[in-house]
Amino acid sequence: MAAQRRVLLLCGDYVEDYEVMVPFQALLAYGLSVDATYSESRGHNFALNATFDEIDAAKYDGLVIPGGRAPEYLAMNESVTDLVKKFEDLRKPIASICHGQLILAAAGSVKGRKCTAYPAVKPALIAAGAHWVEPETMAFCTSDGNLITGATYEGHPEFIRLFITALGAKISGSGKRILFLCGSIFYMQILEAYSFMADSFVVLEQDYMEDYEVMVPFQSLQALECHVDAICPGKHAGDKCPTAVHDFEGDQTYSEKPGHNFTLTADFDGLDASNYDGLVIPGGRAPEYLALDERVIELVKKFMESGKPVASICHGQQILSASGVLKGKKCTAYPAVKLNVVLAGATWLEPDPIHRCFTDGNLVTGAAWPGHPEFVSQFMALLGLSVSF
Fold first, then answer.
1. Is residue 136 domain-shared with residue 242, that is, in the same domain?
2. Which segment of the chain is annotated as a signal peptide (predicted)?
3. What is this structure's pTM?
4. Are residues 156 and 10 in the same domain?
5. Which of 21, 163, 212, 351 could covalently link to 369 via disulfide, CB atoms 3.0 to 4.6 Å apart?
6. Can the peptide bond before residue 353 be classed as cis, meaning omega within 30 degrees of 0?
7. Phi, psi of 371 (to 5 degrees)
């Protein structure tokens, strides 16, 4: 059995949210060991697990450099560029995305190499001697020897796949079709309630799915060459869903911040569940109203009754509870959803710690996004997906 691959993730304050969280949790889900480090204490909303001054490049198999605003000042840090040079000298795979290539330019690692990046980084890369490759889309990635570069987080599936391939990965069970059940805006038609009201009217209630809980598993599965679709009642392919970041900052419950806009890939109406091999239900605030939609309930029942893998996280279990599919099941959820789970006839499994996930038959449940590595890994096992080295 091959030794576990070990990867270093180079972070800084105000690193791009997705560009650190998605590769970090995806690689962990695939069975790699990932250390996240920087010369300060922590990045924005991202807890580090290694100390910069103790890093030995020789002990790692590869390096990932996220983008965001952090690379602008990390590129000025000699200890950071020296570390990158060590990985380059050892010819170990280096994957850098968006503005991360500023660090590569400062380290002298792009001279004579094909390289792409966020378009604004082009002048610095050309000045550093790189052969600039224009990103055809913001999902564009390219590779040159041990160097993998991407334009933005939209290209994570290819970016991550190229990186694990460079590490020697073999993907088994690819080609699965996975469906994500999303939510953003709920329209409620109110019928005439009072005699003085001549017309009916629409109440617009905005509600959000959790940012990480849709994007991390979505791109993690895409990176393994699965076909992944995202749908939302009342919306169509190409429409966007606003998301919210739920973070754990020492309060009695999670804090909430605006997240990214997530683009749907398929229409809800006319969808044939039999065309998919599995279902993922993200959490956030969306599930509490999606659980009121009979079309959603019917879709979930079809997946559960067919025995196909279903993975639900955080508040997503509110939909499972409303669907009547939890009776006799063992499952977990965000602790505040315990009442829904128990009243639905399930046996409650305490998520202690919060990243604990559980599998019972065809059902995987998790408590919150810190558990994504277990959540995605257990879902992969049910789908017959694996990454080996």
1. no
2. none
3. 0.91
4. yes
5. 212
6. yes
7. -90, 10
